[in-house]
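Design a sequence for this backbone.
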């Protein structure tokens, strides 16, 4: 518990007798990383041994027995699996709708200070309102590409930072613009990015239909560990309108962002951990494909 609470910069306690009867070994909380004045409260089970998990070359595998023991009807549970031989702890968040099949998790599921942001994303409850881009109709522009590009670039710059309930603040920088409009990208793909950019604020305000981490790398430099992940969010319910007289047709919006989290390499013994953990999310690309 001490290591997980330290990683999350929070507080916690072992489960009471009644909580233990409900197979809750630990309860901990931490400040929510992107909702100010809110607490992230997590119920946890602690497991160890090959019955519940095994270490992989990158990450770990959680068995069906561990998932079955964690699944509840009305809340998620964070399963902490301890590799006693290697003295390492991994985690997985099990939802009420999770399957009981064994599941493999990547290396970023090891307990580190980056865990807090992952838990907030996994444990986030969808609030009232639309999801997946529902209600958003993207107008397809027919003007000359270069003329539209200048207008859209001005809109892109004006956004600065947008807020996503799934990830927090997302910065719109030159990285995303250069990637979307690089010389080697096909013109039709550039056009879909130009069409969707003016609607990014409205799209990101909603929860995505699905959310996945598509790539991950970690390196250490000058006493700090850097974890870089690329996220892909899909919005299945946006619509595209070809002209003012045509009916909107279905499309899927894709938004890719790059998340970088930096924390001290010696975080387990660092007394100033909260002040030294930083996180930044930058837009990489936005486009759509017709359904």
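Sequence:
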């Amino acid at each position: 518990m001490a290591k997980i609470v330290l990683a999350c910069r929070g507080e916690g306690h072992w489960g009471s007798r009644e909580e233990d009867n409900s197979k809750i070994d630990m309860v901990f909380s931490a400040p929510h990383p992107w909702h100010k004045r809110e607490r992230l409260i997590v119920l946890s089970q602690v497991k160890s041994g090959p019955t519940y998990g095994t270490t992989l070359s990158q990450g770990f595998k959680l068995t069906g027995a561990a998932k079955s023991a964690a699944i509840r009807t009305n809340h998620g549970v964070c399963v902490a699996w301890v590799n006693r031989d290697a003295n390492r702890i991994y985690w997985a968040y099990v939802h009420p709708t999770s399957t009981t099949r064994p599941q493999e998790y990547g290396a970023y599921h090891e307990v580190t200070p980056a865990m807090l942001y992952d838990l907030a994303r996994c444990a986030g409850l969808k609030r009232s309102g639309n999801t997946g881009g529902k209600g958003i109709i993207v107008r397809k522009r027919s003007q000359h590409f270069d003329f539209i590009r200048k207008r859209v670039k001005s809109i892109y710059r004006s956004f600065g930072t947008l807020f996503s309930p799934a990830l927090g603040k997302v910065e719109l920088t030159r990285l995303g613009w250069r990637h979307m409009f690089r010389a080697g990208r096909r013109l039709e793909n550039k056009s879909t990015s130009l069409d969707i950019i003016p609607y990014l604020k409205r799209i990101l305000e909603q929860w995505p239909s699905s959310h996945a981490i598509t790539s991950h790398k970690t390196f250490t430099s000058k006493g700090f560990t850097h974890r870089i992940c690329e996220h892909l969010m899909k919005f299945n319910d946006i619509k595209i309108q070809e002209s003012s007289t045509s009916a909107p047709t279905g499309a899927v919006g894709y938004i890719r962002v790059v998340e970088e989290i930096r924390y001290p390499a010696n975080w387990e013994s660092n007394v100033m951990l909260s002040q030294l953990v930083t996180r930044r999310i930058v837009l990489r690309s936005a486009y759509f494909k017709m359904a």
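The radius of gyration is 21 Å.
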